[in-house]
Automatic annotation (TrEMBL):
Phylogenetic placement of the source organism: Eukaryota, Metazoa, Chordata, Craniata, Vertebrata
Molecular function terms, GO-annotated: inositol bisphosphate phosphatase activity; phosphatidylinositol-3,4,5-trisphosphate 5-phosphatase activity; phosphatidylinositol-4,5-bisphosphate 5-phosphatase activity
Gene transcribed to yield this protein: Inpp5k
Residues in Inositol polyphosphate-related phosphatase domain copies: 1-97
Protein name: INP5K phosphatase
Record-stated family: Belongs to the inositol 1,4,5-trisphosphate 5-phosphatase type II family.
Protein source organism: Orthonyx spaldingii
Length: 212
């Protein structure tokens, strides 16, 4: 019944479950491992289940359109999935699952320092200067986004520049990237620049706020 529901119900489709390598957990006579001996003689069933899902932060898209698929920030591994036949105070046998969670490490210091150069307006192309720590794993898929200071998610960018495709100068200390004037919001306001690392799947540098 659950497997049928997972095929029909959209909210269940992404949930995972471990293999059912234990006996059906319902319905037992109390304080025994004997299935229902009452007049109803209910059929044994795997009623007690553990399902899990890791939420994805972005949709998968390509460089021609927007950004590549973002990986999960947490990986989940099921270590065991078992029932406990020794418990008899209910007509259900309890089920437990043990999981290993692997979380991506937090970075206390910015891997990339970046700033808006000169006066920013929609009347001319604008420049961004950035520098990265020596061990930073850069990628051609990295990008720098222009965000309002109130942004809440990496997808809230106003516009962006690819650090490789839009680079205009480079030296041992820093690099310059440009953004087209046509992409700068004419209404102005207070903004931030954020450097997004494809390899680390996170923002690794944020500029000081500045006015457009």
């Amino acid at each position: 019944q659950l497997n049928m529901a997972k095929k029909k119900e959209a909210f269940l489709k992404e949930f995972k479950e471990g293999p059912l390598q234990f006996k059906p957990t319902y319905k037992f006579d109390l304080y025994s491992d004997v299935y229902d001996t009452s007049e109803k003689k209910r059929k044994p069933a795997w009623t007690d289940r553990i399902l899990w899902k890791v939420k994805n932060l972005t949709e998968a898209v390509s460089k021609e359109g927007e950004f590549p698929e973002e990986e999960h920030l947490v990986s989940v591994t099921l270590n065991n999935y078992v029932s406990h036949m020794s418990y008899g105070i209910s007509d259900h046998k309890p089920v437990t699952g043990t999981f290993t969670l692997e979380m991506k490490p937090l970075v206390s210091e910015p891997l990339v320092v970046l700033s808006a150069e000169g006066e920013w307006s929609a009347e001319h192309d604008v420049l961004i200067r950035y520098s990265a720590v020596p061990e930073f794993p850069s990628s051609a898929w990295d990008w720098i986004g222009l965000f309002q200071v109130t942004f809440r998610h990496v997808n809230d960018y106003v516009t962006y520049a690819w650090v490789e495709d839009d680079e205009i100068s480079s030296n041992k200390d820093s690099k310059q990237v440009y953004m087209s004037a046509s992409e700068i919001p004419a209404m102005g306001g207070e903004f931030l620049l954020c450097y997004y690392s494809n390899n680390l799947q996170s923002i690794v540098g944020i500029s000081e706020p500045f006015q457009v």
